[in-house]
Fold:
Amino acid sequence: MRFDIITIFPEIFDSYFKESIISRAQKKGLIKINIHNLRDYADNKYKRVDNNPFGGGPGMVMMAEPILKAIKKIKSPHSAKASRGKAKIILFSTRGKKFDNKMAKRFSKLEQLIMICGRYEGVDERVAQYLADEEISIGDYILTGGEIPAMIVVDAVSRFIPGVLGKHESLEEIKGSYPVYTRPEDFKGWKVPKVLLSGNHRKIQEWRKNVSGFDIF
Structure:
């Protein structure tokens, strides 16, 4: 799967995507992450990608033109696939639908996910109206930009791509979400539940089911 992220701060992603599971997934060729500097698509001397809002008001608004140019270039080799629903363009917005695990799983079926990271006062509304397929939010709070949401989406979606986690059973949707412990058995008087030391796999499974709230065992 290919992730394309449009941003004015491309260096933000360097550290996170070069570590741990996401890094290994890229090296294995399971996912590909491309970071696109929006200023490269600005058609002016100063590489400006924002301007004053019509009607007045505080802050600056990111312009639609450089975003359109970026999307056209990013989508060009995938236009046929996009027409078959294999690619989507996402705009991060406080007004968007809240991102969740169900959405992440749906996105993992795509071949390409293009993400637009807003900044400043926001993005020209015509991007949402005419360019983006979906507007999404990662929660009921405000961030300074869409870069962290983009990292979250890449991470959450990648987990559903076969091979990224190593074992399919690592998905909490499969195994449930329950407390885990490791050695030592007794740490400063804080002890591991006896059932986990019993060797009785049926009882262990029952315990995990009871404490997880998941009815999937």
Remarks:
- Residues 78-83 have pLDDT under 50 and may be disordered.
- The first helix runs from residue 14 to 17.
- The chain has nine helices and ten strands.
- Residues 182 and 188 are 14 Å apart (CA to CA).
